[in-house]
Write a structure and sequence with these properties.
heterodimer, A: 213 residues, mainly alpha, B: 252 residues, alpha/beta, 25% strand
Chain lengths: 213, 252
């Protein structure tokens, strides 16, 4: 698995993937919908999938001493590594931004525990839809991306909209007491992410086994 | 022990049937897989690598069932898929760094030696190499992990006659020690006239004949016309067979 991950990082990863990894810095932009950070996370993985397709990555990998299903496992490992790294790399900016922008984010949700819960939810949803859709053919990356991004964009929109409801002001807060209330969101997001990614990879692997390259 | 035994390989597509394909590749031999475009050559090779799921049939590699021992079989297998360019903008050194992690028995000294022998510059990208040099690079990778069976899909297509001749000489040199074998598909029959020991002829998804080259040519003596030599060249065998209405299978 390490060899597959290394191969993907060295040969398949699109340069934009590494660039987008640091887009957590957007959390320091005043009046910005921070859900875009998750969108760029998904976009980088889509570019990488396209890059792999254009470079015959699936064929090349199938000639290496790995099982066919391992091709999908390796790619899933890359998705998880990139998504979790992006969230982790954004954390310092989430902590710094109240010092930098004490007036808060007027455009949408604050970078708080609920935000990260929604982030994990978005990435999990993306993995659950994109991976099985792409590995149905191992070719139609664009179609898989559109299929996955419609519900993910809707989820991001809901996240940003919720922060404008007065009754849900606690969801948009960075006060420690409110963030404690948000922790179940974060936990639910993490659980959904783990489950959805596991399921997405499993279905993708099963579908890819049936594909004739 | 055969390095590769294919028995009764079948694969059904909506508009094509690969039917009961069987052949063996022995150590120290070069087997050519011939057939016109769409005859099933690439499908057969892909089925060997599990890129295509066969409906039935068995594949034994190095005496082991390929389905059960896929990983260990692939450790001793080298594959060159012609016509597919991998990682065109990556330097060869980057590709090699990623590939060698998959092979515990990777021999860096051998790799350096093959780079020198094939006159390959690691700083170049596949895009900057000719078709022949790309095949040589893939061969260098395969030989550096001491692959005993080389499976090559149309490795000479798109090459000029001199590069093709160089490559065919290289194939012969590689199997000379009797440890390795090469299975390669081609529709350029003159390649096989030059270097193949055995020939398997696929027509419309079935094996028309699989035999040692001289026996193979003798098996098609019924295609001879007046003034023809005793043994027809492979090209004539293929052209006449494809143009005939009745395709009786020869007795080999």
């Amino acid at each position: 698995m390490t060899a597959l991950l290394f191969k993907d990082l060295r040969l398949t990863a699109h340069p934009a993937l590494f660039f987008f990894l640091f887009f957590g810095v957007l959390l320091c932009v005043p009046g910005y919908p921070y859900g875009m950070v998750f969108f760029f996370g998904c976009l980088g993985l889509f570019f990488t999938t396209m890059n792999g397709r254009e470079n015959g990555d699936v064929f090349f990998t199938a000639t290496l001493p790995v099982r066919k299903g391992d091709v999908v496992r390796g790619r899933c490992a890359l998705f998880v590594l990139v998504q979790l790294s992006q969230l982790l790399l954004s954390l310092p900016f989430a902590f710094l931004r109240p010092l930098w922008l004490p007036e808060g984010n007027v455009a949408g949700i604050e970078a708080n525990a609920a935000y990260y819960g929604f982030g994990l939810l978005s990435f999990g949803l993306f993995n659950l839809i994109f991976l099985p859709a792409f590995y149905r053919t191992a070719y139609q990356a664009g179609r898989a991306f559109v299929k996955a991004m419609i519900p993910v964009a809707l989820l991001i929109f809901i996240m940003e909209a919720l922060s404008h409801f007065p009754d849900l002001a606690w969801l948009d807060s960075i006060r420690p007491s409110d963030q404690l209330r948000q922790l179940p969101f974060l936990a639910a997001g993490a659980m959904f992410y783990a489950l959805a990614t596991f399921l997405g990879c499993r279905i993708a692997r099963h579908r890819f086994e049936q594909v004739d390259l | 022990m055969s390095l590769l035994e294919v028995d009764g390989l079948c694969k059904r597509y909506p508009s094509f049937l690969l039917s009961d394909v069987s052949f063996r590749v022995e150590p120290g031999r070069i087997m050519g897989l011939i057939g016109k475009n769409g005859a099933g050559k690439s499908t057969t090779l892909k089925a060997l690598l599990h890129m295509v799921r066969p409906d039935s049939g068995s594949i034994r590699m190095f005496g082991l069932d390929f389905s059960d021992y896929e990983l260990s079989c692939k450790q001793e297998l080298g594959v060159v898929l012609g016509g597919i360019d991998f990682y065109r903008r990556k330097k060869l050194s980057q590709i090699t760094r990623a590939v060698r992690l998959f092979y515990p028995q990777w021999d860096e000294n051998a790799y350096r030696e093959y780079l020198r022998l094939f006159d390959l510059d690691e700083r170049k990208c596949p895009d900057q190499l000719s078709a022949g040099m790309r095949v040589k690079y893939m061969l260098a990778l395969a030989l550096s992990h001491h692959a005993r069976l080389l499976v090559l899909d149309e490795p000479t297509s798109g090459m000029d006659p001199v590069s093709r001749d160089d490559l065919l000489n290289l194939f012969q040199a590689l199997v000379k020690d009797g440890q390795r074998a090469i299975l390669f598909s081609t529709h350029i029959t003159s390649d096989l006239d030059k270097c193949a020991d055995d020939v398997t002829y696929l027509k419309d998804g079935t094996v028309l004949c699989s035999a040692e080259k001289t026996r193979f040519r003798a098996a098609f003596s019924h295609l001879r016309e007046s003034g023809d030599p005793d043994l027809l060249p492979l090209e004539e065998i293929m052209v006449r067979t494809e143009r005939r209405d009745d395709h009786d299978c020869p007795a080999v």
